[in-house]
Automatic annotation (TrEMBL):
It holds the Pfam family Aldolase. It comes from Halospina denitrificans. This is 2-dehydro-3-deoxy-phosphogluconate aldolase. Homotrimer. It catalyses: 2-dehydro-3-deoxy-6-phospho-D-gluconate = D-glyceraldehyde 3-phosphate + pyruvate.
Length: 219
């Protein structure tokens, strides 16, 4: 269904303010819900305001629900949403928004009126245009580095001046600011704030410190 050119789904407008405030959205794949809560708690202590839990393991949905219960102040995303069933599960788990790695007409159409907003994944101008036709203005740009990186983000600004992007994939501490300096980038996403070595060592203070230092560097 094609929407008017100025249309943007109301839930996405609300979502944009939360994402812009976050600057960085850590992306966490979890093996157990207790560890996920400890990681999330450390991130919040370091100043993180948004977190994405990928739906790639059996522990993801229980972890999502547990974090929602104990850290209600955190803007919580369910990532790797690839179907309407995933979407429903994410809503039931308490997600504030859902993130898909790509876009399909079915997902885009469903997300416009869903109970929680969708941040659809795009990698090309054609996919952005498909999202625009459904009324979307916010997108996950993925995989960012493989899709052209900062130059690609810059090139999309002209024809899609109303779009705001969350580049993910190949984004890290060394290039996050380059993305955030672009006017069409609302935030960046990545795994570098939740390194597996710190999680394995249960170094929650290390994760808190990494988050704090990163956010202050990018502020």
């Amino acid at each position: 269904m094609k929407k008017e050119s100025g249309y943007q789904p109301s839930p996405q407008r609300h979502l944009e303010s939360h994402i812009r405030r976050a600057h960085v959205i850590p992306i966490l794949t979890v093996d157990d819900e207790a560890t996920a809560l400890s990681v999330a708690d450390a991130l919040v202590a370091g100043g993180v305001t948004a977190l994405e839990i990928t739906l790639r393991t059996p522990a993801a949905l229980p972890a999502l629900a547990r974090i929602r219960k104990y850290l209600p102040q955190l803007t919580l995303a369910a990532g790797t949403v690839r179907s309407i069933d995933d979407y429903h599960a994410a809503i039931d788990g308490g997600a504030d928004f859902v993130v898909s790695p790509g876009s399909t007409p079915h997902l885009l159409n469903y997300g416009v009126t869903a109970a929680v907003p969708l941040l659809p994944g795009v990698a090309t101008a054609s996919e952005l245009l498909m999202g625009f036709e459904e009324g979307y203005r916010g997108f996950k740009f993925f995989p960012a580095a493989a899709s052209g990186g900062v130059p690609a983000v810059k090139s999309l600004l002209g024809p899609f001046a109303e779009a705001w992007l969350v580049p993910t994939g190949g984004v890290g501490g060394e290039n996050a600011k380059d993305y955030l300096d672009q006017p069409n980038v609302a935030a960046v996403g990545g795994t570098w704030l939740v390194p597996q070595d710190l999680i394995a060592a249960r170094d929650w203070e290390g994760i808190e410190r990494l988050a704090y230092n990163t956010l202050h560097k990018l502020a």
